[in-house]
Specification:
By secondary structure, the chain is an alpha/beta fold. It has nine helices and 16 strands. It has helices at residues 6-17, 34-46, 120-129, 153-161, 209-230, 275-287, 316-325, 338-342, 371-386, and strands at 50-56, 59-69, 79-84, 103-105, 108-110, 140-145, 168-171, 180-183, 187-194, 242-250, 260-268, 296-301, 309-310, 330-332, 347-350, 365-367. A hairpin with a 2-residue loop joins strand 1 and strand 2 (59-69).
Length: 387
């Protein structure tokens, strides 16, 4: 392996950080990622990668990037190095430096996305550099996605297209250089109940949405207990599925029967718990708690949800990653794009240089001491699965 070009790597990260690509549910904050993937495309084309941009339907300012080196994409096997190009919004007043200016201090590189996860791309490119003039038996693909921090639309569109093709994938989310082989899924749902308002002095004049919601909440808590009795995975710090009642809104005055109420909650299912089946059970159980035809209820997903992820520890990719890092594969509490790649029959792990404690925080940073170990790990994975 050639010496790591740290100055060039820092320059690339500086340019990525300087290009805002915030992904947010608030349209006023939401940005595109097109300048980021075009920048990556230019760098990778210079190294000999064949580059393809896939704009998201209805959002031409957002796109996925598939860049392939060596044999054609998906030729029997190959390795995918994957990351998302968007960041979360930021609290500028809480930063001690400009979030869009890469700042080096205390042996750290500060900037929005440095850990989660723009910092992964220069390291992946650096690891790939020494293979650019070698004949690869299997393709090396660098994948960059859009909208991971909100809707996972980029990953969903890849699944619809059946792309990319490959045998193994590493997603460079911040894991502190430890391989991750499973994480919980996430559902965020809204229960909306419509009743009939009326004067509070005569209950027969209306139908209380809040009283109906009381029954719905009781059923949700009962269902949570049943799920936690039925499902358990000691590989997680919290070994059971969770259900959190996040926020509730309803009514407008104490002397009016509540005509409408909404509850938003989230569920973190374990591997083996399919979102479609959970939603069907929620619909059946909650509908049974609606007291009369004067009350209407609907359950609306706040976003499509992300399935739980689990990669078999028997996978060659897991075993190689464990040997290279010196750590046994473990679980994390946060969600990633891993289940989408896994659904394409790609053995997948999550392994990156940053720390999740830095993600979504002011003064986000990537430790300089993580650069060389991560590049070496990626270099060895490329050599193992592409040569």
């Amino acid at each position: 392996m050639a010496p790591i070009a740290v100055p060039e790597l820092k320059t690339q990260l500086q340019q990525l950080i300087a290009c805002p690509s915030v992904s947010a549910t608030d349209p006023a904050l939401d940005m595109g990622n097109r300048p980021i993937v075009e920048m990556l495309s230019a760098w990778l084309e210079t190294l000999g990668f064949a580059v393809e941009l896939m704009p998201l339907p209805g959002s031409p300012h957002k796109a996925n990037l598939i860049a392939t080196l060596g044999a054609r994409e998906g030729a029997e096997g190959g390795l995918i190095l994957s990351g998302h190009t968007d960041t979360v919004p930021y609290d500028e007043g809480l930063w001690h430096s400009d979030p869009f200016k890469l700042t080096e201090r205390d042996n750290r590189l500060y900037g929005l996305g440095s850990s989660d996860m723009k910092g992964f791309f220069p390291l992946a490119i650096e690891a790939a550099r020494s293979f650019c003039h070698q004949p690869l038996r299997q393709p090396l693909t660098i994948l960059a996605t859009a909208d991971e921090e909100t809707s996972m639309t980029g990953a969903r569109e890849l699944v619809k297209a059946g792309r990319p093709k490959g045998r193994y994938a590493v997603i460079g989310e911040p894991t502190g250089l430890r391989p991750v082989c499973m994480h919980k899924g996430v559902m965020m749902e809204s229960v909306r109940i419509t009743g009939q308002s009326g004067h509070s002095s005569d209950p027969s004049l209306g139908a209380s949405a809040l009283e109906a919601m009381h029954g719905v909440i009781a059923e949700l808590l009962s269902l949570r207990g049943e799920w936690q009795e039925k499902y358990n995975n000691t590989g997680f710090v919290v070994p059971v599925p969770t259900l959190n009642l996040g926020c509730i809104h309803g009514g407008d005055n104490p002397n009016r029967i509540c005509g409408a109420a909404e509850l938003q909650f989230d569920v973190r299912p374990l591997p083996g718990m399919a979102l479609e089946e959970l939603r069907a059970e929620l619909q059946q159980r909650l509908q049974a708690r609606i007291p009369s035809d004067r009350i209407q209820m609907e359950i609306v997903p706040l976003f499509p949800g992300t399935e739980p992820f689990e990669q078999s520890r028997d996978s060659e990719l897991v075993k190689v990653a464990e040997k290279l890092t010196g750590y046994k594969a473990e679980s994390v509490a946060f969600g990633t794009e891993a289940p989408y790649l896994k659904s394409l029959n790609i053995d997948t792990i999550v392994l990156g240089p940053g720390d999740i404690d830095q993600a979504h925080q002011p003064d986000e940073y990537l430790g300089l001491d993580r650069i060389e170990p991560m590049v070496k790990i990626l270099h060895n994975l490329i050599g193992r699965f592409c040569l």
